[in-house]
Design brief:
Blueprint lengths: L18 H18 L4 E4 L2 H8 L15 E4 L6 E5 H10 L6 E4 L5 H18 L6 E4 L4 H10 L4 E4 L1 H9 L3 H23 L7 H14 L11 E4 L20 E5 L2 E3 L2 E3 L2 E5 L5 H19 L7 H13 L13 E3 L6 E5 L16 E4 L2 E3 L8 E3 L2 E4 L6 E2 L13
Parallel strand pairs: 1-5, 3-4, 5-6
Antiparallel strand pairs: 1-2, 2-3, 7-8, 8-11, 9-10, 12-13, 12-14, 14-17, 15-16, 17-18
């Protein structure tokens, strides 16, 4: 398999991705996980799960995740799409692989949800013999669950998100190709942001230049809804937005915007410097850099997420910064979900230990911050990393700021 991005176009001069084949393979994986979970059907509402099953690229409205579009996966049939009325006509004309489409209201107002359950969902389930089914649901409005229980009393609702996470965890070869393209785009977005940094430029201007590159190159969304550009003291502690703050000489500047292409996310981030760094800034940067390298070295079959986390923390110990990591996981899975299990360095109760398996892809993003450093004492570096049979393959290529590395 190629370990680089060939280009996003469908061209005649070389074989690239068979998207119809990929679509079918994803459905087969989801069906296997549905059966393994002893479910008769999966009813999904999360944006990434709907896309995984149907390839619907919808208009997304802020704050309406899991309220706009859904899909029903049943045995021996293509997925059934429940979509916003604004998507229905386009989907009907441009997505021939979907054989059954229903326009639905926004799953928010209780009276409309009641109408959806009675007039759309219940008839669909009856038509497919699922009146007494075990249905896995990934995420749902409480009113939807209550009204399903009221109008469909013989339905048993169970966990449908875990089977979908399991289906998505190990990436198919075609998904890896798409993720290489998404990472190349994320590299370009990050490089554009870095190029825009100068004294007197605002954080929001840097984000604007990066987002211009994202859309100019055909990207769908940023990795995060709130593009993250933080400069100087805004990185200690991190302010995870882009504000009107002016970038000044001596400021560390962090850019974390990433890119989505063809439904998959590239999550790349860099910290750079406006002007000349202090020695303390170099120490923090080098601690993060060395921890990142040591962690990636452990990301291979036979090692676990715990091994990688310990290695990253050990890399910072040389600089007495092992207790200064942001209280967030150090790495997360990435794919058709911008942020998905498994995680590395999650400290919350219940965090599982995973062994690395070929086909897993992670965004590895250690962040250390120290208060009271002039020009900011917060650094995060983020790489896209594919687990292979041997050494991990680092997909991202944006260079690191050499001025911030201790000699």
């Amino acid at each position: 398999m190629d370990r680089f991005a060939r280009g996003p176009f469908n061209v005649s001069y070389e074989e690239r991705i068979d998207l119809a084949s990929l679509r079918q393979k994803r459905i087969e994986r989801a069906q296997r996980e549905r059966e393994r979970s002893e479910l008769d059907a999966l009813l999904v509402w999360k944006d990434e799960n709907v896309r995984y099953l149907t390839d619907l690229r919808p208009q997304l409205i802020a704050g309406k995740t899991a309220a706009l579009n859904g899909a029903l996966l049943i045995p021996n049939e293509p997925p059934i799409l429940f979509c916003s009325g604004g998507e229905h006509d386009r989907a009907e004309r441009t997505m021939p692989w979907i054989k059954e489409i229903h326009a639905i209201p926004i799953i928010e107002e209780r009276s409309l949800i009641d109408g959806f359950v009675r007039s759309i969902l219940a008839p669909v389930l009856r038509e497919h013999g699922l009146q007494r089914a075990r249905i896995g649901v990934d995420e749902a409005n409480v009113s939807l669950l209550q009204l399903m229980a009221m109008h469909l009393p013989e339905i048993r609702i169970q966990d449908g998100d875990t089977p979908m996470q399991s289906a998505r965890m190990i990436k198919l070869p075609e998904e890896i190709v798409i993720l290489e393209e998404a990472t190349a785009l994320a590299d370009a977005v990050t490089a554009s942001g870095i190029s825009a940094i100068a004294e007197g430029v605002r954080e929001c201007e840097v984000a604007g230049e990066a987002m211009r590159t994202l859309f100019r190159l055909g990207g769908e969304y940023a990795h995060v809804m709130t593009p993250f550009v933080a400069s100087g003291e805004h990185m200690s502690p991190p302010h995870r937005i882009s504000s009107d703050k002016l970038i000044r000489h001596g400021d560390l500047v962090f850019i974390d915007i990433g890119a989505c292409w063809n439904g998959y996310f590239g999550d790349v981030a860099r910290t750079t410097i406006c002007g000349k760094p202090s020695q303390r800034q170099q120490e923090i940067f080098t601690a993060v850099y060395e921890g990142l390298r040591m962690g990636i070295a452990k990301m291979r079959p036979g090692c676990t997420n715990e091994d990688a986390s310990k290695a990253i923390i050990q890399g910072a110990k040389k600089y007495k910064l092992e207790d200064r990591f942001l209280s967030l996981f150090i790495a997360h899975g990435v794919g058709i979900g911008a942020n998905e299990p498994p995680y590395i360095g999650e400290t919350m109760l219940g965090a599982p230990i995973y062994e690395f398996q070929p086909g897993m892809i992670f965004a590895v993003e250690p962040l250390i911050w120290v208060e009271g450093v002039r020009g900011g004492g917060g650094v995060r570096l983020e790489e896209m990393v594919l687990i292979t049979e041997g050494e991990a393959h680092v997909m991202s290529r944006v260079p690191f700021e050499e001025k911030l590395l201790l000699g």
